[in-house]
């Protein structure tokens, strides 16, 4: 059974190992121990049999817009719905915080489409561009897509804490 919980300072080393695997492939931005500590209150981990097998963060860009960041799943544990459960947990957190939209910057549009997101032009997330993209050393070479979901602020869903088949 997959359990999603808020990350703690004790989880940082394991989170860095997961994120760094994706960073080396150019799929995620580099994180440091200090950057993770600064954002610890908005970072979550997925546990399988007590082992951290996934992580993701929720970052508020605007009053009505949050971003899912640093979504990473242990490759040996992929295809078990871990990433999807993390995303659904962060969608529910977005609802709880009464934020009306949640976005992701990704190369993996199919995954986020299966989670209910749709692609949008960069011009619709100018705050993301200004806060992050324009400062990135790889901005001119970037091929990432922007995905967004409108969320209902009225009801927080109960996400099943079990593996979800995403095929």
UniProtKB/TrEMBL annotation:
Q: Which domain of life is it from?
A: Bacteria
Which keywords does the record carry? Acyltransferase, Transferase
Keyword Transcription applies: no
Its Gene Ontology molecular function terms?
acyltransferase activity, transferring groups other than amino-acyl groups
Q: Which Pfam families match?
A: Acetyltransf_1
Record's InterPro entries? Acyl_CoA_acyltransferase (IPR016181), Bact_Acetyltransf (IPR050832), GNAT_dom (IPR000182)
Looking at the record, the residues that make up the N-acetyltransferase domain are 2-148
Q: By what name is this protein known?
A: N-acetylglutamate synthase
**What species was this sequence derived from?**
Alteribacillus iranensis
């Amino acid at each position: 059974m997959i359990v999603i919980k808020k990350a703690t300072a004790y989880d940082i080393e394991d989170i860095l190992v997961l994120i760094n695997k994706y960073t080396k492939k150019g799929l995620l931005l580099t994180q440091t121990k200090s950057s993770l500590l600064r954002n610890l209150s908005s970072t979550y981990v997925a546990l399988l049999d007590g082992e951290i097998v996934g992580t993701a963060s929720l970052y508020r860009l605007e009053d009505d817009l949050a971003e899912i960041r640093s979504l990473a799943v242990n490759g040996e544990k992929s295809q078990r719905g871990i990433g999807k459960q993390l995303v659904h947990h962060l969608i529910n957190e977005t609802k709880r915080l009464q934020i009306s939209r949640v976005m992701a910057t990704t190369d993996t549009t199919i995954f986020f489409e299966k989670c209910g997101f749709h692609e949008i032009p960069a011009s619709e997330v100018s705050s993301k561009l200004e806060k992050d993209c324009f400062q990135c050393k790889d901005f001119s070479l970037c091929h990432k897509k922007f995905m967004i979901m409108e969320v209902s602020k009225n009801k927080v869903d109960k996400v099943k804490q079990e593996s979800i088949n995403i095929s």
